[in-house]
Amino acid sequence: MTELEITAAREEFIGLCRAHINRSGLDELLDYLDRRTDFFTAPSSTRFHLNERGGLCRHSINVFRTLTAFYEAAVGPAIQAGTSPFAEEVPAESLAVVALFHDVCKANFYHPVERWRKDESGRWESYAGYEVKDAFPFGHGEKSCLILNWFLRLSPDELLAIRWHMGLFEMSEPTSSGRASYRTAMGMSPLVSLLQAADMVASNCLEHIVTA
Questions:
Q1: pLDDT score at 20
Q2: Which letter does DSSP use for residue 34 in this model?
């Protein structure tokens, strides 16, 4: 992403937060992300979706757009019609909170590194990449919940959605009890499945992989 694209994504992200979230602590959270982390310039991964400067912010916006589309097109109408197993509609603010902030754990997580590979002639060449340096290995969804709770008061449904948004791809407890907890969480709130689905679609269907 160019510097102009990174700046535009940052402004879009902050605008979405202010338009859809009216909760004490939001200003402090945005200031923390802006001043004390690389959230707005970090990649979204090391070698998968949006593995480039600014990718994390753009991914968060993509997940928000995808999640709200899923809710407005399918889940919300099903709840309203009484055909969903869930009876209560999801607040628009909760949709925004979980989508825009589910990956704050990735701030200050990826660091630039020089990598090496062979070119078409078999000669070694360097290229810019990223590596993981986890200063506080507290889990993925768990760490996002922890960071967010420094600033915002999250609802139980929001906590469950962010905690389990990686689904079976990142199971801290790869046991029958861990899988049971995951299934139970999905049965407690539509936000859990919504965020997982939006994250997967954004990551795998909407976002490119940068090959240096």
A1: 98
A2: H
Give the tens place of pLDDT for each residue, 110-129.
Answer: 999 887 777 888 788 887 78
Residue 167 CA, chain-centre distance (Å), reads: 13
Integer Cα distance of 36 and 39 in angstroms: 9
89 C-beta neighbours (distance < 10 Å), count: 14
Q: What's the whole-number mean pLDDT along residues 85-98?
A: 98
Task: Give the closest residue to 34 by CA, choosing from 52, 2, 65, 9.
Answer: 9
pLDDT digits (tens, 9 = 90+) for 175-192: 666 788 889 999 999 999
State the Cα–Cα distance between residues 128 and 116, nearest whole angstrom: 9
Q: What is the pLDDT of residues 96-113, one digit of tens each?
A: 999 999 999 999 999 998
Which helix (H) or strand (E) segment is 156 a member of?
helix 156-163
Q: Are the CB atoms for 30 and 14 separated by under 8 Å? A: yes
If you count DSSP H runs as helices and E runs as strands, how many of each does the chain have, helices first? 9, 2
Q: Which residues pair with 111 in a beta bridge?
A: 131
Q: What are phi and psi of 125, to 5 degrees?
A: -135, 150
Instruction: Answer for the pair 90, 97: CB distance below 8 angstroms, yes or no.
Output: no
Sign of CA dihedral 103, 104, 106, 112: positive
